[in-house]
Amino acid sequence: MKIAVLPGDGIGPEIIAQAQRVLEVLRSDGLPIEMEQAPLGGAAYDEFGHPYPSFTQNLCRDADAVLLGAVGGPQYDNLERALRPERGLLAIRKDLNLFANLRPAILYPELANASTLKPEVVSGLDIMIVRELTGDIYFGQPRGIAVNELGEREAYNTMRYSEGEIRRIAHVAFGIAMKRGKKLCSVDKANVLETTEFWKEIMIDVAREYPQVELSHMYVDNAAMQLVRNPKQFDVMVTGNIFGDILSDEASMLTGSIGMLPSASLDQNNKGLYEPSHGSAPDIAGKDLANPLATILSAAMMLRYTFNQEAAAQRVENAVKTVLAQGYRTADIFETGCEKVSCSGMGNAVVAAL
Amino acid sequence: MKIAVLPGDGIGPEIIAQAQRVLEVLRSDGLPIEMEQAPLGGAAYDEFGHPYPSFTQNLCRDADAVLLGAVGGPQYDNLERALRPERGLLAIRKDLNLFANLRPAILYPELANASTLKPEVVSGLDIMIVRELTGDIYFGQPRGIAVNELGEREAYNTMRYSEGEIRRIAHVAFGIAMKRGKKLCSVDKANVLETTEFWKEIMIDVAREYPQVELSHMYVDNAAMQLVRNPKQFDVMVTGNIFGDILSDEASMLTGSIGMLPSASLDQNNKGLYEPSHGSAPDIAGKDLANPLATILSAAMMLRYTFNQEAAAQRVENAVKTVLAQGYRTADIFETGCEKVSCSGMGNAVVAAL
Ligand SMILES: CC(C)[C@H](C(=O)O)[C@@H](O)C(=O)O
Ligand SMILES: CC(C)[C@H](C(=O)O)[C@@H](O)C(=O)O
């Protein structure tokens, strides 16, 4: 189990350290885990002058899975586009062909108060958003800023999906729906965009191979509304890269505790990059205040999806449930009556619960 | 004051009838209002075989303003793309050059319970979303479905904005911010899309002409989160066509009472199309159940933006506030303790309050 560990920027190193402690417990209990570190994003620019240097690239290509903290920070805002931290993230996704981004939005009962939505609307929330991650307008050509025939500057990007790209993400989404509530909602804007009309057509075609899954379709504007109106209507959602970027962030915020949400980005063979859904939080970096649970739960997803270690994954997830039940809270999810702990304090609690 | 009235489909005719009654009161009190009807969407397809026939086009071109109900219905779902109701909507926007879509998200104190969000998060909510409406990936060329060099089918659309298109919507947004809280948030995905990087650059340039307005920038995924986390941080938001489609629907649903929300779509000279933010609700069409208030408030926006009749606009808005305070509610916003009224019953109440 070769894991490339990329702490990244901001709170990345702190939260990664706690997830590594968890993986070390599993190793000492017999899992053949090997971990090696490399920089990504701003940290990689500082060390190698590039957000995804070949040192990191080689390590990640060789590894079975990648565990990432987070990238980005204000000190990199004025770098030229190609050198900014998020370029490292886009580059590693494309380089490793991590086309399937899984983003659960789960509300832990103990944290129901953290949501800005009424408890009855979100209690028990458990949505899985499957976002295509290596196509769409993120990578489509042509793109750029140019002077048009009228002598005026204009800018353009290309939304683009091939049949094969849609088919493979459809299979991932239907496969996940089969293991969950067997309901899949495909999100498109088929009334306006040919690309998503095509998306819908392929989804319908792939659905014939999964007769047990109930497939529905929703326009992206309506999906953005329905997530607010009645999020519990959803089981699994599947959509393209840009719509998925927007909707998965909206869905995660419904829980009010984004510091709890992991994510996975998988290739065709379940090699994956695992990272928390939240960002690098430069304002609290280095202060031992961050919530490491999303990163620890990302490590659990890694055990499940890449290494097929369902028992070990559940052991980690149960440890997280235990520490919540015990009342341990980092600052972002703190409520009176609970015990406030630091990032490393939360790591201690999880290790103890394991 | 020449107004083209387009009832459209579903509940359109019912809600339009109540808004017309309101305008007739104002006419009998001296405003030189003239109204003529034409079909749009499915109704136009039924009568003329096209969702935006030349009969309707001529009437709308001649008018100073257009009042629209809503378009769409399941009976049109299997028409070929070019004949579907929403094509009528896209066509009239483009034909009349209605590039500035104003979508307020306002929570009426009496309806605070209708929201799925906690009262403290949304009470007093008053956001104005300015959405560019005639550019972006909605209209960008090239677009289509084709076979690529590898012999595989693929589909594509083009996100595209010229400098002039961005500049004119920027001026509308800054102008509105000047009349409100002087805070403007421009939403982009400048870290990934050149088109929105260009958008941001032009926004910053136009900002120099409005030194009193505080301009901020937010990525679209973060905006989708922040609308859930703390929507009251926003005053005016401005964004492109597709992001605006998604975010304005999300924002309107924060209120829980989308039956209350009007919209305006303006050209360079404040000619405008006014319509409720909600859809054609085919399930309750013809039952005198729909909420006509969003359409009545759309007529108020028309008085304000096209006809510069601020006093008359406020008179209508105050009448709506009065009927809410009196406890009249259509089914969509009904609560125990209030008086349930039909669509026409709500029209009666507003006319009486006027
Ligand atoms: C940082 C950015 C490029 C990235 C994206 O848009 O994919 C982020 O928002 C995400 O969702 O992982
Ligand atoms: C019906 C559809 C074409 C339209 C749009 O996407 O603009 C609608 O969603 C809207 O927002 O008015």
Summarize the structure.
Chain A has 354 residues and is of the alpha/beta class.
What features would you describe in this structure?
Two copies of one chain form a homodimer. Chain A is 40% helix and 21% strand. Chain A is α/β, with parallel strands linked by helices and 354 residues long. In chain A, strand 6 (144-147) and strand 7 (153-162) form a beta hairpin. Chain A contains twelve helices and 14 strands. Chain A has two domains: 1-103 and 261-354, Isopropylmalate Dehydrogenase, CATH 3.40.718.10; 126-254, Isopropylmalate Dehydrogenase. The first copy, chain A, is globular. The model of chain A has no long low-confidence stretch (mean pLDDT 97). In chain A, helix 1 (12-28) packs parallel to helix 12 (343-353), helix 8 (220-229) packs parallel to helix 9 (241-254) and helix 11 packs across helix 12. The interface between A and B is large, with 61 and 60 residues. The complex binds 3-isopropylmalic acid (2 copies). Chains A, B: It catalyses: (2R,3S)-3-isopropylmalate + NAD(+) = 4-methyl-2-oxopentanoate + CO2 + NADH. Chains A, B: Its cofactor is Mg(2+); Mn(2+). Chains A, B: It comes from Vogesella indigofera (Pseudomonas indigofera).
Structural features:
ten-stranded mixed sheet; alpha/beta; Isopropylmalate Dehydrogenase; homodimer; 2 domains; 354 residues; 12 helices; binds 3-isopropylmalic acid
Indicate the CATH class of the largest domain in chain A. Answer: Alpha Beta
| Pair with the biggest interface | A-B, 61 and 60 residues
Stated plainly, the CATH topology of the largest domain in chain A is called: Isopropylmalate Dehydrogenase
Present as ligands are:
3-isopropylmalic acid
Shape of chain A: globular
CATH hierarchy: architecture of the largest domain in chain A: 3-Layer(aba) Sandwich
Q: What is Rg of chain A?
A: 20 Å
Mean pLDDT of chain A: 97
Pairing-aware structural class of the strands and helices of chain A?
alpha/beta
Strand order of the largest sheet of chain A: 2-1-3-12-11-4-5-10-8-9
* DSSP summary: helix tally of chain A: 12
How many strands appear in the DSSP assignment of chain A? 14
Number of discrete domains of chain A: 2
Distance between the termini of chain A: 20 Å
Helix content of chain A: 40-55%
What is the N-to-C succession of helices and strands of chain A? EHEHHEHEHEEEHEHEHEHEEHHEEH
- Biggest sheet record of chain A: 10 strands, mixed
Binding site for substrate (chains A, B): 93, 103, 131, 221
Cofactor (chains A, B): Mg(2+); Mn(2+)
Pathway (chains A, B): Amino-acid biosynthesis; L-leucine biosynthesis; L-leucine from 3-methyl-2-oxobutanoate: step 3/4
Site (Important for catalysis) (chains A, B): 138, 189
